[in-house]
Amino acid sequence: MTKDLIDGAAKFKHYHYDADSDLMADLVKVGQDPKYFIISCIDSRCNPGTIFRAKPGIFFAHKAMGAIVRPYQQGTALAAALQFALNYNKVETIIVLGHTQCGAIKALAEDIDDPEISSFISVAKHSLEKAKISCDNEHEIVATTERNTIRESTENLKAYPSVAKALTENRVAVKSWQFDMTNGNLLEYNETTDKFEILITNTTIEDNRNHA
Ligand SMILES: [Zn+2]
Known about the structure:
The protein is an alpha/beta fold.
């Protein structure tokens, strides 16, 4: 049942322990020093470790449905993780990473009748209401809600005490990113243009399937 996972772990062990690599040995010996903290959706298709092709030690990861950041409350998993990342480690950039075709946002738009889920995602209702005013069809409403939610989550994030303090001290940047699942593009919200703009496209990298 879990053969695919065990096979993957065997490859990871081979490349990062048995083969000629000191990366994990150094990370164990010296400790970690990640520069990024990524808040992403639980969606299986946009795992940041996969889409950023990141080696171990690059970022802290926090996952929540829709990459939603609820308003600050002491004692939550996210508040504790941010405190650890910013006050006991030297994270320089926090990224709220949403994505297209998000099941959480679709559930919100369809007003899912499941209190366990709706009690969490309902915080993004404001993003949905705003989208309903500016869009005419269902598809546009969901797509705009996805982006509005990323921005709203980023604003909520900035009010977490650890983040607010780090922002005041100018030692952290907070970014709103979106992974477009339909074409692999990565976008960033630009406050000046008030738009999500493409950071990279598939064509900026030379095709080399041997390294895929
Ligand atoms: Zn999602």
